Amino acid sequence: VREMRGDYFIEVEHLAKFPKVRDVSFGIKPGEILGIAGLLGSGRTETAQLLFGFSRMDAGVIKINGKDTVIASPKDAISKGMAFCTENRREEGIIPYMSVKNNIVVSSMKKISRGIVINKKQRNKVVGSYINTLKIKTPNDRQRIRFLSGGNQQKVILARWMATDPKLIILDEPTRGIDVAAKAEIYAIIDALAASGVCIIMISSELPEIINMSDRVLVMCNGYSTGILNRDELTQERIMTLATTEIGA
Q1: Rounded to an integer, what distance in angstroms lies between the CA atom of residue 170 and that of residue 153?
Q2: 133 three-state secondary structure
Q3: What pLDDT was estimated at residue 248?
Q4: Do residues 119 and 112 make contact, with C-beta atoms less than 8 angstroms apart?
Q5: Which among 37, 49, 114, 227 has the fewest CB atoms less than 10 Å away?
Q6: Nearest one of 226, 196, 230, 200 to 215, comparing CA atoms
Q7: How far apart are the first and last CA of the chain?
Q8: What's the CA gap between 194 and 175, in Å, rounded?
Q9: Cα separation of 163 and 106, whole Å?
Q10: C-alpha distances in Å from residue 11, one per residue of 68, 77, 113
Q11: Which residues pair with 15 in a beta bridge?
């Protein structure tokens, strides 16, 4: 059981980007894992992308720490303490011909450089720390990431965003295409992040995963949020009922 701390970090009210996202509302507190469930085409990924600034919303309000906020781009989202692990790891997540080292630090260069000069000692310290902490299996940090297993690639992506000290991480299908042992390690990392006070939004097509990992679950259908279930209400039957509840049909 995780402890959710204080007020909402982020609140979303009537978020819309037609036709995929029609009306979505939720909030998330530090230390909470909010699952997002729904059938294919329900608008789960599009909602996450909209929240992260991949496109402009048509309607709705986003509040961070209680204040209305405009997220105009992913760069803007990152500056506000957000991170995004895409569902398409191979095409949108990793930079395949770059090393593990550079894949980890690519989003946090300001922390390890002055202008265009990289502090190599600091970079190596950061990289080594995440390789050890997340148990990334690689011959060395110069190995091209495309040669790593799917689970280790996913750990590198998590390390990349953890290096930015995020307040909120969006995880879209975080265990897709990885083996059972690697899944357990990814779950442990997610739990540790939440325990440290990071907000987690986790999208998954696997209902057992959503039920086991989430403190609450937002269910979507046809671009609408059809309900939010607390942990003691989470069953596959209840989720599927809400996931097939048509609003505005």
Answers
A1: 17
A2: helix
A3: 58
A4: yes
A5: 114
A6: 230
A7: 38
A8: 17
A9: 10
A10: 9, 14, 34
A11: 24
Residue type (1 letter), 223: G
CA 110 to chain centroid, in Å, comes to 22
Location of structure tokens 């996450």: 48
Closest to 142 measured CA to CA, from 87, 78, 205, 98: 98
Q: β-strands 168-172, 82-85: how paired?
A: parallel
Kindly report the three-state secondary structure assignment for every residue of 72-112: CCHHHHHHCCEEEECCCHHHHHCCCCCEHHHHHHCCCHHHC
Name the nearest CA neighbour of 56 among 14, 10, 16, 27. Answer: 16
pLDDT in tens, 117-139: 777 788 888 888 889 899 999 99
**Which amino acid, 222?**
N
CA distances (Å), origin 172, targets 47, 93, 109, 139, 191 = 11, 11, 24, 28, 16
- Weakest-pLDDT range from 69-73, 92-96, 175-179, 231-235: 92-96
Beta strand pairing call for 168-172 and 117-118: unpaired
Taking the C-alpha atoms of residue 224 and residue 44, their distance in angstroms, rounded to an integer, is 9
Question: Beta partners for 219?
Answer: 37, 227
